[in-house]
Structures are given as C-alpha cells and as structure tokens.
Amino acid sequence: MKLHRQLLTAAVAAALFVPAAHAEVAIDVIGGSEITFEGLVQADGNWFDNDKADLNGVAKNGKDSEFELRRAELVLKGKGPGNVEWVVGYDAKADKFLDTNVKYKLGGNANHFFQAGQYKQPNSLEELSSTKNNDFISKATVTNTYAVARRLGVGYGFGDSNWSVNASAFGRELTRDLAHGSGYGVRGTFAPINEKGNILHLGLSYVDYDTDADLLRLRARPNADLATVRLVDSGDLKDTDRLSTVGAEAMYVRGPFKAQGEYYSSKAKRYDHSNYTTDGFYVSGVWNVTGETWGYKGGTPSLGLPDEPGRGMWQLAARFDHIDLNDGGLAANPVAGRPPIVDGVLGGKMDIWTVGANWYWRSNFKASMNYVMVDSKKYSSSARTFVSDKPNILEARLQFFW
User: Fold this and answer.
1) Contact 336/311 with Cβ under 8 angstroms?
2) Does residue 220 contact residue 139 with C-beta atoms inside 8 Å?
C-alpha cells in the first residue's frame, strides 16, 4: 500500500504541471506509438440518516458518516504503430487492473476493430460511459447489480457514426480473486438523430455467463458506494448454473438537456429450483445550467470542457431507479402459530430518488453533491412480515483528473 501511495503522489504531482488546456500528459513517441498518461482521483464522503439498518454498521466506527479515497486510476495509452491502439490501466486504491488491452482498427476505422485483453463488456449505457463524467456520484442500482464491467476477453466491433454492433467472449477479471465466470455478450446501438446538441440514442444488449462455483447472490447498496449494508439481497443461491441479462437503453440530448434510462431483466438458471427472474430500471435527467451540450461517439455520450473554464460548467440532475429482487411470495403455514412459508426468493424491492449538482472547473477539477432518498421493503423471517427501511443519504465528491 505504501508503494501505491507513493506512485499516486508522484503521478498527481506530475499532472499538476500539465497546461490547463490539455487534460492528458503527452509522454513520448516510442516504437511508433504516441504515449499519453491519464489519471483520475476521487475522494468521497457519505453522511447517513439511518432508518432501520445502520448503513455504516460493518465499519463499527460509531459514526453515521464515512470518508474514503474512492478511486486512484493511472492509465497509459498508446496510438500506433499503424492502426494499433493499446491501454494499460491500474487503480492504486482498489489494487486492480482497469482497461488493459490492445485494439486493432481495420482500415484505420475507429468503428471497425478487433480487441483483446481486459475491457468493459458490451452492455449498459451507464457502465460504458466515462467514469469521470458520471451524472451522479453512484451509478444506478440496476447498473451496479446487473451490468458486467471489465473482463478478459476478445471482442469485435463494427459500425458507423450513428450505429454500432459489438460482440465479446469473456472470462474472469485480470486481477486475481475478482469476478469470474466465462460468457459472452452483444450490444447494438442506433442513433436516428445524431447532431451536435441533438441526439437520440437507442440500444439493446444481451449478456450470458456461467456463475462462479454455481453460486449466485444479487444484492444492492442504496446508491451509496460507501455504505456497508445492502438493503435488498437475494441471499446465496447455491444451485445456479448461468445468469442471462437483457438490457434496453435510450438517451435523448437537446441542447443543454439530457434524458436517459435503462431497463434490465435478468434470469438465473437453477438446477434444483425454479429459475430466478428479477428486473429493474432507472430514468434520469441532467441540465447543463451554463449551456454546454453533449457529443456522441461509439454508442456513448461525451462531455467536453466548460465553455468558460474560469466560471466552470454547472449541472443539475435528478434520477429515479427501481429494483425488484423478489421472485416468489408467501404461503400459509399448515402448522398453527408457525411463520408463513417463503415460496421462491424474496430479495426485496427498492425505489430511490437522487437529486444532485456537479461543478466542472477548468479542465481538471469536479465537485459533486447528491441527496439520496430510499424506500426499500424486504421480508424479515424474524418479524414474519415485510419490513420497510427508508434512509436518506448526503453524498459529496471531489475529483481531480488529467
């Protein structure tokens, strides 16, 4: 850990000398490859207004707050020689590899390529979008629960400026002891409207993979990355073979306004029980108060720098998301006085409203504030009924990127 901190400190110090007009650090041209250095550092604070569960209970620090360095990402990128691009990314905070892969662009076309290594799998608009430009501090509950992020694999992509098809076969994460399970995924996107400040995006995806050791557990935090408690939880499903997820996505940009949403439906195939099916969605809206708009590339939105760097770019945002991990119900117990019998899986339901503001200052800094309002309900065997838990959470983030 000491080495990680020293590496991060040196990287940030070097980035501070980068001119404000350029986000990345140009290193050199070596072997025909133009090498640049990028980084992202995020520090978070969460303040919990608990209801039933102590959202910071596992930390056992006696406080209703938590502060943590969330990310410390260091990334080397190379363009060339020829039509080759490569990237090596590492998160010094989480001690894991990020995107680490090689891409070959057929005919020099960025929309037609082969890719090998670790990369984000072809699913989920929010998961594939840039982390440094997230609309909210925490991704939506359904994205964190269902989306398949970085895995080792081989992929193929083909498309144009307004459509794309991507397919991938993948295995485990590059870093040992993290996500496992071989599978495949495919995503298709279409933008019937694709102009600067006027974009309509539609997409569909499907991912299917083997569950590790035939064990599956779906659970979700209440849109607070530093919470140590999950309010909805399927529990361990020990006879699970594969998990397949269908995703539908849409986004509309009009000038300084952006609306987007995604729906997921997931089915776990089980040996000794009925298949377990769950679903969820989110819808969100963002307003760039200072008038900036979004671009569009590779089936995801892109956000540029503030029009006036000294003033910065201000955003206001709101999101509603819902997840349902119930697939079953309660049956009356034939034995008098005994609790009802759980028929299926009762992992719980959760609805969450998030409102927030972001401030991007110049080309390297971002500050965010979110307020999260949670309404969850889950069956409790001890209470013999469904129990509601409705906490509120205040979240803050400071971000430095280059």
Assistant:
1) no
2) no
Report how far residue 42's alpha carbon sits from residue 69's, in angstroms, rounded to the nearest whole number: 6
Compute the 3-state secondary structure of the chain and give helix, strand, coil in percent, each to the nearest 5: 10, 60, 30
Residue 30 clears pLDDT 50, i.e. is over it: yes
Rg (CA), the chain: 22
- Flag whether 99 is in a domain: no
pLDDT tens-digit profile of 65-86?
999 999 999 999 999 999 999 9
Beta strands 365-380; 392-401: pairing state: antiparallel
Q: Are 120 and 150 in contact (CB under 8 A)?
A: yes
Q: What is the DSSP string of 145-203?
A: HH---EEEEEEEEEEETTEEEEEEEE-S-SSTTS----EEEEEEEEEEEEETTEEEEEE
Place of tokens 């399927």: 234
Residue 215 lies in a domain: yes
Per-residue pLDDT at 169 exceeds 50: yes
Burial 165-181 (b: 16+ CB within 10 A, else e): bbebebbbbbbeeebeb
Any domain includes 265: yes
In whole angstroms, what is the distance from residue 364 CA to residue 40 CA?
9
pTM of the model: 0.91
pLDDT score of 382 more than 90:
no
CATH code for the domain of 218? 2.40.160.10
CA distance 282 to 352: 9
Which residue shows structure tokens 């600067």?
A: 196
Alpha carbon distance 248, 212 (integer Å): 25
Residue 277 structure tokens: 């099916």
- The DSSP code for 131 is G
Count of structural domains within the chain: 1
Complete DSSP assignment for 324-339: EEEEEEEE--SSTTSP
Q: Residues 6 or more apart from 172 whose CB is under 8 A from it?
A: 151, 152, 178, 179, 180, 181, 182
CA 250, CA 357: separation in Å to the nearest integer?
A: 22
d(CA 36, CA 115): 20
Q: Indicate the burial class of 334 (C-beta count within 10 angstroms; 0-12, 13-18, 19 or more).
A: exposed
Residue 311 structural domain: 43-68+134-148+159-401
> CB 232: neighbour CB atoms within 10 A?
26
